[in-house]
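Form 7-S
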Amino acid sequence: MAWRVSRHLRPPARPGARRLALAAGLGAVIATGQAPLQLWFVALPALALLIWLVAAETLPARAVWLAWIAGAGHFAAALFWIVEPFLVEPWRHGWMAPFALVLMAFGMALFWALAAGVAGAVGGASPGRRAIALAIALAGADLLRGYAFTGFPWALIGHVWIGTPLMQAAAFTGPVGLTLITTLAAALPAMAQGLRGRIGLAALSAAALALIWGGGMVRLAAPDPVVARDIRVRLIQPNAAQVLKWRDDMWRMFLDRQMAQTALPADRPLDLIVWPETAVPYLLDDAGPLFAEITATARGVPVAAGIQRAEGARYFNALAVTDAAGRVTAVYDKWHLVPFGEYLPYGDQLANFGLGAFAAQSGGGYTPGPGPRVLDLGAAGKVLPLICYEAVFPQDLRTPERADWILQVTNDSWFGNLSGPFQHLAQARLRAVEQGLPLLRSANTGVSAVIDAKGRVLQALALNSAGTLDADVPAALPATLYARTGDGPATILIGLALLALAAVGRAVPRRNAIDPGLRRR
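Output:
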């Protein structure tokens, strides 16, 4: 009989539909903090409520369920642009779009579920300790997501601060540090018992964020360094929709458009002209005559252009730089490729069944290059090139030699028109802050932009518009703390904090899970 009573009193391992729906809704509201909305003041209270909801669960399984479903809501809302590549050729790939969104949302949500499981394991019986453990574990989940399975650090919790003065903290902490600041601030109210205590800790949380915000404002107001040397760059944006870009009756028009944009007179001498990712509709080995034509059009100004190249049966997504004579003087091969978009795991075997990657126009997919490198472009300075997706990974910008500036060429027409291109731009802004380097990006359909070393967009071309930007490369700042140390300090801090919580949990005796009133009956 006693066994039956205890079983009856034990709550089910999975929360009810209403609590799961609430968790999913909170996750979606947290996603409003991402670009283009950037509603951090909406996302932060929702995050605080979610941490309180998950930490209040005494059964670890229920907490994991809530975090998983909340994560699914968050990533479905933040990453719905993932369906766009499947709609470029909907007659071939459109049927995959809903499956891609569901798998992406629930797959990325597993990292939040893992964080809830870790929090339950180290937080012990105290809801307050579980809340703080969840805050730390969520930052650890964002860190892990940036590296696991080649990494996908998109829509990190800390990205809600992009465009605000608080973003400047990334120069010291990196993106994972921004997440940790955010989750700890959201978790503080859940650590208190009673309304008065929660209000007090919420005020403390707001004061801490205000202090960091103020520090960011001071950093933004500080005078910029004097430019070591003037570098004038033209960014080309042809506005070639992906569905039209490679059509037999359209590619020449887009090529002519880029040639005309290259030929436009400049108010001051240019040091470099930049064409976006895969802008040249030839393989590199076949593009010699075209490069000569481009160089003549550019009046001898060096040109950096996105192009594909081949080595035997292997194909590369590359950036080629030509000199005043039209000779290719430098080539950079993209090395952090998009899984399933630019290559397929076990692609050589799958090619036998006719399966290939979306973005590759030649072969079944791309081969990764050797790694990040700095290109010395003479009058244009030392440049760290990034091709599209590579700007998502802060760890990929660390090179033995420091560049003068960062150049990103990209084809954001794959990301649609709503959120994807703006989230990609927002992450490029964060890379500039983290490294203390200006970043210039040439995007096929937008948003092409000039970003200074503090992450401010100085000039930009609107999405889905054709045009050019002639701009001076902004001054670089001294190497930041994050540029020197990377994610190492954040990793150590998160690990030590979780170990400390686990040790405290073992030192404090666990309370009986059954209500004392029931034990007396």
